Amino acid sequence: MLNPIKLRGEPMATTFVIACPECSKQVKVSDEHVGKRVRCKGCGEIFPVKAAASAGAPKTKAAPPPTQTKSKATQAVPAEASSPPKVDEEYDPNKYTLVKSDDTLPRCPFCAQQMESHEARICLHCGYDTVKRGRPEVKQIYAPTAVEIFLWLLPAIIAVLFMVGMWVWYLFFWDLIVDWLEDSWFEDEKGPPPTYIAAASPSFFRIYHALLIIFICVPLVRFCIKRFFINNLPPEKKIKEDPFR
Questions:
Q1: Does 79 fall in a domain?
Q2: Most buried of 81, 168, 207, 210, CB within 10 angstroms?
Q3: Cβ-based neighbour number of residue 17 at 10 Å
Q4: Is residue 47 located within the same domain as residue 114?
């Protein structure tokens, strides 16, 4: 049932009859409602508005054959059955109200999944930030155990013990070097004070021994700082790769 509404001789909008599938209440709607979901004012049912070709007036039964019509012509026909269903003739666009659907939610520009709401900033599917236009790296890893952490720190612990041992040895070396140089071929003349060839005195060996220990300790100290403070956990074991990378 089409009823073009003309304004100044030109068709502006088309109205047609639609029935609520729940309460069968009929009303005229405009073609601007096609494809949208509406709420019935009578029962509150939400249903989509279809085009006029598929959402016209309700189907009526076909007319009986002529023979049957003549034979039953004398029978009384109820007034309700013979009269067409009542339709609200006055067009009121507020008869049905539009309902906001989740289908209108924006989609993430990174993974094309629907956002949580219109005001959402972070995509819950891939973590994309629509304001900063970036996505942080997402990892799924196994948590390291206490044994793995201990084995990872064990080389640094051994390095610390080795450096402590070298300086403890240097304290003993401070006194032992005097006895070692006595009566050795480094001693030139016995004192007092004794003299040594090419200034190879105990102080000479003490200084160069300390410099050797410092030379060894510098890379060890750097290694211990990295292992204890900067990278104090073992390498990560990924559960699975990031599907969006």
A1: no
A2: 210
A3: 19
A4: no
